[in-house]
C-alpha cells in the first residue's frame, strides 16, 4: 500500500499481553505510523478513513507451519497415523503441474485470509523434486492474493522405506519390490534447485520469501542436512523441519544416532535462530533446553497431531525452559482446516489435559502470543509482524463486536482465543490493503476458484488411481509395523513428566 490510511474508532489489541484500548491507527506506506487517542491523529481530512467503530482490531494471525499442497488433497486422507499418511503422500500429491501447484496455494491462502491469517510458512511439495518454476508458481499465487508467505520446498534424499529399512523388510512381495523401487531425489539436485531459486528470486521478499525445509531428519542424510543449513546461511533462508512428530521417529532416531533427534541435529550444526521445528512432540527436557539455547522456534500443530494420533507437544515445559513457540494449522490434508483460530484455541485447551495444575495451563494471552509473535519468528519476520506498533507491518484483523461471542465483552483476548472461529471477521488488511471484506477475499474470484479446484481434484484423482491402490495395499502392513513400534517402551531424555 502506498499512501496513508486512518483506521478510526476501533478497540485495539496491540499485542497478546496488552489491555485493549480505543485508538486510531495511522497507516503509511503499509506500515503502522502511529496509534493515537480517538480523534487526536491530526491528519488531513483528505486521508482515506476506515471506520472501525464496534470493531476489535488485532494483529493478523501468523501460521507457523502448513503445506499448501494440502489444499487440493483435502478429504483424501483416511484415518491413518503419520507414517500411513506419508506412505500415501505420493498418490495424493502426484501428477501435479504448475497450474495445480498455484491453484492449491491459492486455495490455502484464501482459507487463511478468510480466517484472519495474514502470513504463513508453507512447506510446499513438488514431486519428484522442487523446480524454480514450481516455486515461482506457488509464490506467484500468494503475491496475487496479497498474503505474506515463506515458500519453503520440502526436501528429502530418502524415501519413507529408505528411512525405515525395517519397515521395508516387513512388507510382503510384491509390495516390497514396489516400495524398494521408490527413490528419493539426489542431494545435489535438491540443493541445486533451491540455490537456483535463491539466486534470482523475482518476488518482493518483504511479502513472499524463499525458505528451505529438509522434511524429516530420518528422511535426510546428514550431509544433505548440512547442505540445507549452508544454503540457509548463505541466502538467509528460514529453515524448517518436522521434528519428533511421531513416536516412530523418536524411537528410530535413538537407534540410528545413539542419541535423541535434537542432540543429533545439534551435532551436525542444524540448530540456530533461522530454524523452526514443526510438531516437536516426542522430545524431553534436555532436548527442549538444547533448542532454547540455540534460539530455535518450535511450532505447535495441535489439529494434525490429534488427527494423526501423534501425541501432544509439551508446550508448557517448552515455555518454562525459554523455548519460543508458534502455532501452525498443518496442511488441510492432515488437519482438514486452515483455521488458525481453532488451532490456537486447541493449543490452549490441550494443556489442560496435560496437567491438573491450573497454573500450568496455557492461558489465552500465551496462546495468542504463540499464534502471532511466536510464529512470526519462524518466518524470519519476528521484528515486523505479530503486534500493532509504529514501524510494524499493518497486517490487521477487524472483528465485529456485535457477534454473540463478544456480547457482553469482558476480556477481549480471552473471548477471541476461547470463542472465535473466524465468523466475526469484518475485514482483513495486509500491508494496509484491505484483502478481505464482507466475508470474501477481494483479490480472487472465489466462485471460479471452487470450480477450478473441483475439476483439478477430479483429474488428479484419476491420474493417481494406481498409486492410491498401491498405498491402500500397503496400509495394513505399515499400520501393523507402526503399531508394533508404538507399543515399545521408550524413555525420553530428561525424564519428561506426565504433567506437560
TrEMBL record:
Q: Which SUPFAM superfamilies does the entry mention?
A: Composite domain of metallo-dependent hydrolases, Metallo-dependent hydrolases
Q: Show the PANTHER family listed in the entry.
A: AMIDOHYDROLASE-RELATED DOMAIN-CONTAINING PROTEIN, AMINOHYDROLASE SSNA-RELATED
Q: Name one GO molecular function term.
A: hydrolase activity, acting on carbon-nitrogen (but not peptide) bonds
Q: Which residues form a coiled coil?
A: none
What keywords were assigned to this record? Hydrolase
- Protein name per Swiss-Prot or TrEMBL: Uncharacterized protein
- Family, per entry: Belongs to the metallo-dependent hydrolases superfamily. ATZ/TRZ family.
Amino acid at each position: 500500500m502506498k499512501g496513508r490510511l486512518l483506521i478510526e474508532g476501533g478497540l485495539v489489541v496491540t499485542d497478546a499481553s496488552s489491555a485493549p484500548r480505543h485508538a486510531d491507527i495511522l497507516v503509511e506506506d503499509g506500515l503502522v505510523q502511529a496509534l493515537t487517542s480517538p480523534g487526536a491523529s491530526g491528519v488531513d481530512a483528505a486521508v482515506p478513513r476506515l471506520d472501525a467503530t464496534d470493531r476489535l482490531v488485532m494483529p493478523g494471525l501468523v501460521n507457523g507451519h502448513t503445506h499448501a499442497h494440502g489444499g487440493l488433497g483435502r478429504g483424501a486422507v483416511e484415518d491413518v497415523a503419520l507414517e500411513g499418511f506419508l506412505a500415501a503422500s505420493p498418490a495424493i500429491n502426484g501428477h501435479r503441474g504448475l497450474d495445480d501447484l498455484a491453484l492449491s496455494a491459492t486455495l490455502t491462502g484464501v482459507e487463511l485470509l478468510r480466517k484472519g491469517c495474514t502470513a504463513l510458512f508453507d512447506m510446499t511439495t513438488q514431486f519428484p523434486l522442487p523446480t524454480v518454476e514450481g516455486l515461482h508458481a506457488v509464490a506467484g499465487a500468494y503475491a496475487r492474493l496479497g498474503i505474506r508467505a515463506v515458500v519453503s520446498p520440502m526436501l528429502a534424499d530418502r524415501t519413507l522405506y529408505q528411512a525405515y529399512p525395517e519397515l521395508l523388510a516387513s512388507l510382503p512381495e510384491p509390495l516390497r519390490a514396489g516400495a524398494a523401487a521408490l527413490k528419493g531425489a539426489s542431494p545435489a539436485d535438491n540443493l541445486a534447485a533451491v540455490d537456483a531459486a535463491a539466486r534470482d528470486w523475482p518476488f518482493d521478499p518483504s511479502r513472499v520469501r524463499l525458505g528451505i525445509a529438509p522434511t524429516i531428519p530420518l528422511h535426510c542424510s546428514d550431509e544433505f542436512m548440512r547442505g540445507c543449513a549452508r544454503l540457509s546461511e548463505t541466502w538467509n533462508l528460514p529453515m524448517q523441519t518436522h521434528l519428533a512428530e511421531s513416536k516412530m521417529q523418536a524411537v528410530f532416531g535413538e537407534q540410528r544416532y545413539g542419541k535423541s533427534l535434537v542432540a543429533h541435529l545439534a551435532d551436525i550444526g542444524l540448530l540456530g535462530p533461522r530454524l523452526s521445528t514443526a510438531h516437536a512432540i516426542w522430545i524431553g527436557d534436555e532436548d527442549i533446553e538444547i533448542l532454547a539455547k540455540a534460539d530455535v522456534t518450535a511450532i505447535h500443530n495441535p489439529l494434525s497431531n490429534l488427527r494423526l494420533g501423534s501425541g501432544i507437544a509439551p508446550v508448557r515445559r517448552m515455555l518454562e525452559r525459554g523455548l519460543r513457540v508458534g502455532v501452525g494449522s498443518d496442511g488441510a490434508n492432515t488437519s482438514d482446516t486452515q483455521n488458525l483460530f481453532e488451532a490456537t484455541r486447541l493449543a490452549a485447551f490441550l494443556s489442560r489435559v496435560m496437567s491438573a495444575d491450573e497454573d500450568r495451563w496455557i492461558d489465552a494471552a500465551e496462546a495468542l502470543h504463540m499464534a502471532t509473535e511466536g510464529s512470526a519468528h519462524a518466518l524470519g519476520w519476528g521484528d515486523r509482524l505479530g503486534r500493532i506498533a509504529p514501524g510494524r507491518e499493518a497486517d490487521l484483523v477487524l472483528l465485529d463486536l456485535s457477534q454473540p461471542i463478544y456480547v457482553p465483552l469482558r476480556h477481549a483476548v480471552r473471548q477471541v482465543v476461547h470463542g472465535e472461529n473466524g465468523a466475526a471477521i469484518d475485514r482483513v488488511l495486509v500491508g494496509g490493503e484491505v484483502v478481505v471484506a464482507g466475508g470474501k477475499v477481494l483479490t480472487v474470484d472465489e466462485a471460479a476458484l471452487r470450480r477450478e479446484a473441483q475439476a483439478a481434484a477430479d483429474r488428479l484423482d484419476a491420474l493417481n488411481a494406481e498409486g492410491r491402490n498401491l498405498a491402500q495395499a500397503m496400509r495394513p502392513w505399515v499400520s501393523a509395523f507402526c503399531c508394533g513400534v508404538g507399543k515399545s517402551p521408550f524413555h525420553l531424555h530428561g525424564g519428561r513428566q506426565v504433567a506437560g
